Amino acid sequence: MKRTMELEGFRALDEKSLVEYIKATPYLHSKLGNKLEDLQIKEVGDGNLNFVYIVTSSSGSFVIKQALPYIRCIGESWPMTKERAYFEALALKEQGSLCPDHVPEVYHFDRAMSLIGMRYLEPPHIILRKGLIAGVEYPLLAEHMSDFMAKTLFCTSLLNNSTTKHKHSGFFCDQNF
């Protein structure tokens, strides 16, 4: 039996099975106005680790990111933990509460499926790495990065929190999901 089949409740999604997943997930379905007639799904992951899908319709949009239990470009011979999606979702939720202008909102998290549904930033937004490689100048980048770092690093540190609060923050407990 393959390793991925042994992971309870997990199955890698593709464009077709993602439609069924959305239909079965009320919150995601509602983000599309409960209409799937003109649904478009495009896989945009760079192929190394995760599947990333842009899901759009005339009534809404979001991004689905699914972490595989192995390195995607190598295969099951190089396993990785699915829990990385859990910690990424926790971090996004915490960072989003502290700095909502610079973090996409998390709409949905499915721990068994290692799947995060989040806000889609439509073009002209692009992945920063791609913009920098293309020579795009970002005059507010330093201001935005320093704002994000100041708010998230200080607010989650022991400089701002008691030891007890820091120990029991969202990064260490399941209360958010």
From TrEMBL:
Keyword Membrane: no
Name of the protein this chain belongs to: S-methyl-5-thioribose kinase
Gene3D superfamilies on file: 3.90.1200.10, Phosphorylase Kinase, domain 1
Stored PANTHER family: METHYLTHIORIBOSE KINASE
Keywords for this protein: ATP-binding, Kinase, Nucleotide-binding, Transferase
Keyword Cell cycle annotated: no
Coiled coil: none
Species lineage: Eukaryota, Viridiplantae, Streptophyta, Embryophyta, Tracheophyta
Organism per entry: Kingdonia uniflora
